[in-house]
Amino acid sequence: MSIQSKTLSRRSFLYAGAFGAAATLAPTSAANGATESYPFTPNTGLVDAFVARRGGAIGTGGKAAIAFRCDHHLNKFESRLLPLHQKYGIPVTIAAMSQMFRVETGTNGSTNLSFPRLQALALANGLEIANHGATHTDADTPQRLREEIVYSRNALSAALPKLPLELFIPPGVGGTQYLGFAGGKTQYSFQRYLAGRLITQQHAMSTGYVPGYWPMTGNPLDSMGNVHVSIENADYARRGPDFIAAARKQGRGVCFMYHPSLVDDTDLQAIDGFFAWCARERDADRLEILTTTGLMMANFSTSSRHDVMSAGTSFVLGWNGWNGAAANWARRTDSGVTYARRGSQSLALFKDVPVGAYAGSARQLRVSMRSTTGVRVKVEVFDPANQASFSAAKTITLSPAAGFQQAHQYVILPLTGTPRVRVRITPLSGGELHVQEPRLLAA
Questions:
Q1: In 265-343, which ranges are E strands?
Q2: Model pTM greater than 0.85?
Q3: What angle do CA 397, 399, 401 make, to 5 degrees?
Q4: What is the distance between the alpha carbons of residues 338 and 65, in angstroms, rounded to a whole number?
């Protein structure tokens, strides 16, 4: 891509007024002069399943929420951006094309990956996959629209059977712009144009170019067609905290986006700094980091958030299904906080839970731990019957400290083939270790 194209891409990350009031459903004028209305009509079956998979709205308790999105170019994503997401425990939604391994070649392409590899990375790192069309080119006939929207989703679903394809992310195309759809600049675009109708028939949700910060009402349909903020430019990445501060004042959220092919070394350094800031804000309990579909389910005004592990999250009422007694851990309470304390003969602490209706959902494993001596710990989520089919792990080094420190691992619970998951905490070195009851939260 030329320098000029890169500059234009960066400058046009939002169209004018994107942070004004959200667009409302509006009538349009038909050719005969009569007013014609286009109310938004969702696929209620898909939306109901979308909500159920997450266990309802994702409450943030008054905190702003954010999400990150990567648009294809997976060679550079895997080599340059994924390590940052793993370093800071930050999930990302990948806008994937069904034919990207054929049409995206070269250094800025996607040919270093494959669908099986992408699926494995997604499960283990909380990488949500969205339909971004088949070829990222214009569709100027109804049949071409079906190829880019419907056939693409079918192909992605077949290639990624353990992942749900619930979200459409409109690609930026020229020409007819999907026969006038133009990415969805209003919610009624999703009913007025054939492209919009095909999107809503096949997907629970879609992003787009509807202006405004994300509403965080807990109703995903309020987020239909919402726009993003680009951080593939170092200046905008450095301004990330300012966008979040503005959203926080409105009780809203922000979705950030980048194209890996447009991220140079300076941009990457700025993104690294922004990710580090976001992780600190999350660990200080001032910010929630979710997937894009999780942001659509976020609710600013409640703290309720589904936990696959259980409703009890403190060990106060006992081991709550954990193997603590058998593994020689003890329960202790200090200053109102109940935790598991490792002993000299302790084994790994774990709990198995059924996946059930939550299969396919993005989850955030959140573990609060402390060590007065310093210790290395491995935290895992995996299929206890077939660990090779699904396994996510992170090794954490806890420095000596008096307070609890948070660890995060985002995963996608497999849509098929994994009826139960195990969460396991394994000390890897000697030393004191206290663990509050882990949570596997909707994300």
A1: 287-290, 298-299, 329-334, 337-342
A2: yes
A3: 140
A4: 28
